[in-house]
């Protein structure tokens, strides 16, 4: 059986239109119903095709490529539960604003809702987690290729229009599904370029009035805040505007921003609070920061349609290019009183001294040592860094000082799933990656390591193994009966991660002290391929006590 000419033409024009719009990568999970799309994708020389043995890992791998490349990636699967396995990554892409073009093959309409095999309801399968959905007509009628090309162009346009995110195109296909040889169908139209919307002058004038009448204004760079050019950072310093940088903002931690605020805000409850916050990006990771700024006026600078105010706190939202809007405000305003910036800078310096003192007195297997020395350990490698949700991102926030690192995290939905695959997707684009994961997060996505083995990728995984879910030791659940707490929340395990060396061809090392860890880290960062360094760190309960001592030390 062969693919009819209308089907080859129909799908071919759709895929060529994706290429015309800027698609360069596709991740394919194998399946029967998606056969013609997979084969015709493979024929396109402009598209780098990656095969995923399972849909969940494959979807997170695509997410990692799209994060690093900052362009849409095609994700393809067959019908049925295969498509359902994309859902967690689609949710993360939606909330972290990553462009994905999700293509799902489907049975034709006459086989829906009649008990046909491998058939589920795929119409609006991902609900509100995609920006746009199209259920294409079943091919076979001449002229539909123009509709298919238009849908492809619109799909990329919607995915790349801010706020960026995933879109879903469902392909109902009839047999036969195997294509016959034929020419590649060309694109039928040019790309649709996303608008680069600028904030309105009236909105900026209103914000300027608040900024100029404020006595203690600050700027917060939250997760996914855009990278600001160096002159803009220096301009903020010249205006005496304190800038607070979340570890997951695109700026990482340049010298012009405050970074130790989570520590000093916990220990200075009476520190005078700002009266105005201008925030770019999502809500800050630090709970202490969010509580400290609760009474201040909040101006959100975000792309149209990107409303992010879970605390219902915003006094004003200005839609448009956030970096351009901030620059416009800086150009129009006058310098603030330098006293507030000086107070905060002094508090940060004191916090850093306290952090150093606590680290010096902590056990040699305390994980905070790694984050504190991050700059000297890996900054010169230029490797992008993926930090897991839960404890790694919080420890990074607390103990890492300042420097220019490209930090990634799946903090859209705050999950620990799919992180191994996401890291390898980043490596697939960037050439290498350092991923700092907890033991549970690493175990959750072990199957993702197959991408590194299959495509000879370079990736360095650090497993911070505190033998379970450490984050719960910092939450009210820790006050429960110890036996009950360990069963329901601590989730201790006896997994021997050294087995990955045999299973996936990994260069594996294990460390018990920081001295052993540092030695192994420097050895492994000097080589290529898949590397895993497991660090058996301080037990969870002791880690919580050290953090508590960090805050108590402030009063000494």
Automatic annotation (TrEMBL):
It holds the Pfam family TPP_enzyme_C. Residues 14-125 form the Thiamine pyrophosphate enzyme N-terminal TPP-binding domain. The keyword Magnesium applies. Its cofactor is thiamine diphosphate; Mg(2+); Mn(2+). PANTHER family: 2-SUCCINYL-5-ENOLPYRUVYL-6-HYDROXY-3-CYCLOHEXENE-1-CARBOXYLATE SYNTHASE (PTHR42916), PROTEIN PHYLLO, CHLOROPLASTIC (PTHR42916:SF1). Catalyzes the thiamine diphosphate-dependent decarboxylation of 2-oxoglutarate and the subsequent addition of the resulting succinic semialdehyde-thiamine pyrophosphate anion to isochorismate to yield 2-succinyl-5-enolpyruvyl-6-hydroxy-3-cyclohexene-1-carboxylate (SEPHCHC). This is 2-succinyl-5-enolpyruvyl-6-hydroxy-3-cyclohexene-1-carboxylate synthase.
């Amino acid at each position: 059986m062969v693919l009819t000419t209308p089907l080859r033409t129909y799908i071919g024009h759709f895929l060529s239109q994706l290429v015309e719009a800027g698609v360069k990568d596709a991740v394919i999970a194998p399946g029967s119903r998606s056969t013609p799309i997979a084969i015709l994708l493979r024929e396109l020389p402009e598209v780098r095709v990656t095969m995923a043995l399972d849909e969940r890992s494959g979807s997170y791998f695509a997410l990692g490529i799209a994060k690093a490349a900052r362009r849409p990636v095609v994700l393809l699967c067959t019908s049925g539960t295969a498509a359902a396995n994309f859902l967690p990554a689609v949710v993360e892409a939606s909330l972290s604003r990553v462009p994905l073009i999700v293509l799902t093959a489907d049975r034709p309409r006459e086989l829906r809702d009649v008990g046909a095999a491998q058939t589920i309801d795929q119409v609006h399968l991902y609900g509100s987690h995609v920006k746009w959905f199209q259920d294409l007509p079943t091919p076979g009628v001449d002229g539909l290729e123009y509709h298919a090309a238009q849908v492809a162009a619109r799909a990329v346009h919607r995915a790349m229009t801010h706020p960026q995110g995933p879109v879903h195109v469902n392909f109902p296909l009839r047999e036969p599904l195997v294509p016959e040889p034929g020419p590649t169908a060309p694109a039928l139209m040019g790309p649709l370029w996303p608008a680069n919307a600028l904030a309105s002058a009236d909105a900026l004038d209103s914000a300027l009035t608040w900024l100029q009448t404020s006595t203690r204004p600050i700027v917060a760079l939250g997760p996914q805040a855009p990278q600001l050019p160096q002159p803009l950072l220096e301009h903020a310093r010249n205006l005496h505007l304190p800038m607070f940088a979340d570890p997951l903002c695109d700026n990482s931690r340049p010298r012009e921003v405050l970074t130790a605020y989570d520590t000093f805000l916990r220990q200075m409850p009476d520190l005078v609070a700002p009266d105005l916050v201008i925030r770019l990006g999502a809500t800050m990771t630090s709970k202490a920061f969010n509580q400290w700024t609760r009474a201040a006026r909040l101006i959100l600078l975000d792309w149209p349609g990107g409303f992010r105010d879970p605390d219902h706190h915003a006094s004003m939202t200005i839609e448009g290019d956030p970096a351009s809007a901030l620059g416009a405000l800086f150009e129009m305003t006058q310098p603030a009183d330098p006293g507030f910036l000086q107070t905060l800078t002094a508090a940060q310096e004191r916090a850093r001294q306290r952090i150093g003192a606590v680290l010096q007195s902590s056990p040699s297997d305390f994980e905070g040592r790694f984050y504190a020395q991050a700059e000297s350990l890996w900054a010169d490698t230029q490797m992008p860094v993926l930090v897991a949700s839960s404890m790694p991102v919080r420890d990074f926030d607390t103990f890492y000082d300042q420097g220019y690192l490209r930090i990634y995290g799946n903090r859209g939905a705050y999950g620990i799933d799919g992180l191994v695959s996401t890291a390898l997707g980043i490596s697939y684009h960037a050439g290498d990656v350092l991923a700092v994961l907890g033991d549970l997060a690493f175990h959750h996505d072990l199957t993702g390591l197959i991408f590194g083995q299959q495509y000879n990728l370079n990736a360095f995984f650090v497993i911070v193994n505190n033998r379970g879910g450490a984050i719960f030791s910092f939450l009210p659940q820790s006050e429960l009966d110890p036996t009950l707490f360990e069963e329901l929340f601590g989730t201790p395990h006896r997994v021997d991660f050294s087995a990955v060396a045999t299973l996936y061809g990994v260069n594996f090392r294990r460390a018990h002290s920081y001295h052993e860890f540092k030695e192994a880290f420097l050895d492994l960062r000097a080589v290529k391929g898949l590397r895993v360094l497991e660090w058996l760190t301080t037990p969870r309960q002791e880690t919580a006590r050290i953090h508590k001592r960090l805050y108590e030390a402030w009063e000494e």
